[in-house]
Design a protein that fits this description.
426 residues, alpha+beta, OB fold (Dihydrolipoamide Acetyltransferase, E2P), 3 domains, 5-stranded mixed beta sheet, 17 strands, globular
Length: 426
């Protein structure tokens, strides 16, 4: 029988110990503790899915007819849920019965473990200490078009709309469909998308989750509203899934040479076009060729339509991490804002300026992009720069849940000692 008491004691000690290094040292002490390492894998490996949320399990707590029925080993329960991750009431009852048999102080601990919400403060350290426990996971992320536009003449590329949503990688194999964020966290509750993915060809689908009828929202609200739905406890989350790539598992995990992008994209189009789908869609191709003159024209068109920008995919193999195999194309704006404060830097910037604090429509906005010499000069002469107008470049305006207004990716350009008035691009 698995010793929940022992696992709980170790976990609580790690949770209650302050400091990353101290927590890591406690993990190191468990290098020969197979039960504890096995527990960590069941809880923190995102590829292991149990299909249950806390709210559903709680409906059945305290209803066990017999304390002797059900699983007497948490690992057996985990393994059962992996094989039967349908999220049914029957499974929720099995979990509730198991929790009911535990000591009172262990019940919430087990509940959080099963629902994968247990926080010990070592989630990013586990793979460092135990490199073979958690599956390694990396996606392809694009660099900025503005940094490369003078280096790509004559190369084949595809242009498509850049969706302002949540990155979603879907592993589809037979009757198994698993949704993950780019941080390798499971996304649950995508029932409509799940049903449609079952009809598609097997493979690793890459795309974006976006709120339905996104055109009804301001651009700055699309991501916020999408996140609100996807991160909710709803058991049926209604969003669209916009696909832009399709890989084999070996291509995605870079164990074999990947096909070039055009072939991968065309295979995704072929897979989707076999079916009438309501939730799963292919991001339309706006241009395929070598003519760079079309970029600014298409960018103006999508921005005029209230969209975020474009993605440029070159006809190259899949590559993990940040790469210039794929480029983000966004509209840059310029605003003049007043300095209202200064923030000290960290690490190499300790003792000098980390960020200027600017006033943007009554809300503080942190802005970086200064040289090392400028950071020293400004930090040592703050009175000289307080209240001065600075020109920055940035992307679109954004809001938070509290109604605050901000700008995406603000970057320092120059001091405007010649003017006192502020100006906004939005």
């Amino acid at each position: 029988m698995t010793n929940i008491v022992s696992i709980y004691a170790i976990a609580q000690k790690i949770k209650n110990t302050p400091g990353k290094k101290a927590k890591e040292a406690l993990l190191q002490k468990q290098v020969d503790n197979d039960d504890f390492k096995k527990f960590l894998k069941f809880v923190y490996d995102p590829s292991l899915v149990y299909g249950l949320q806390e709210k559903k399990i709680k409906k059945f707590l305290g209803q066990s007819e017999s304390k002797e029925l059900g699983f007497n080993n948490i690992f057996l329960l985990f393994e059962y849920l992996i094989e039967n991750n349908s999220g049914t009431d029957k499974n929720a009852m099995k979990v509730a019965h198991f929790i009911d048999k535990q000591e009172e102080e262990h019940k919430q601990f087990v509940l959080e473990a099963i629902t994968k919400t247990l926080k010990l403060g070592v989630e990013k350290t586990i793979s460092k200490v135990f490199p073979d426990i958690i599956e390694q996971f990396e996606v392809m992320r694009g660099k900025s078009y503005s940094d490369y536009k003078n280096k790509i003449k004559g190369r084949l590329f595809v242009l498509a709309e850049k969706k302002n949503g949540i990155r979603c990688i879907t592993e589809k194999k037979g009757d198994s469909v698993l949704f993950k964020t780019r941080q390798n966290k499971i996304i649950s509750g995508l029932n409509g998308i799940h049903a449609e993915m079952l009809a598609l060809d097997d493979g690793i689908y890459d795309g974006e989750l976006v709120i339905k009828e996104s055109w009804k929202y301001k651009l700055r609200d699309v991501l916020q509203q999408t996140m609100k739905i996807v991160n909710s406890d709803d058991e049926d989350k209604i969003v669209d899934y916009w696909i832009f790539d399709l890989l084999t598992p070996d291509e995605f995990h870079v164990t074999v040479a990947s096909r070039n992008y055009f072939e991968r994209r065309d295979s995704a189009v072929l897979s989707l076009n076999k079916h009438e789908l309501n939730h799963v869609k292919m991001i339309p191709e706006l241009y395929r060729g070598k003519d760079l003159d079309v970029v600014d024209k298409l960018l103006d068109e999508v921005v005029e339509e209230g969209k975020e920008g474009l993605m440029m995919n070159f006809d190259l193999p899949f590559k993990t991490g940040k790469t210039n195999n794929i480029l983000k194309i966004k509209k840059k704006y310029s605003s003049d804002l007043k300095v209202i404060g200064f923030e000290e830097g960290k690490g190499k910037n300790k003792g000098k300026l980390g960020a200027l604090i600017l006033d943007y429509k009554g809300f503080p906005l942190g802005c970086s992009g200064m040289t090392d010499e400028e950071r020293v000069e400004i930090w040592n002469n703050q009175a000289k720069y307080l209240g001065v107008v600075v020109e920055i470049t940035h992307e679109q305006e954004s809001t938070n849940d509290k109604g605050g207004v901000s700008l995406e990716y603000p970057s320092f350009e120059m001091w405007r000692f010649d003017k006192d008035e502020v100006s906004y691009a939005h």
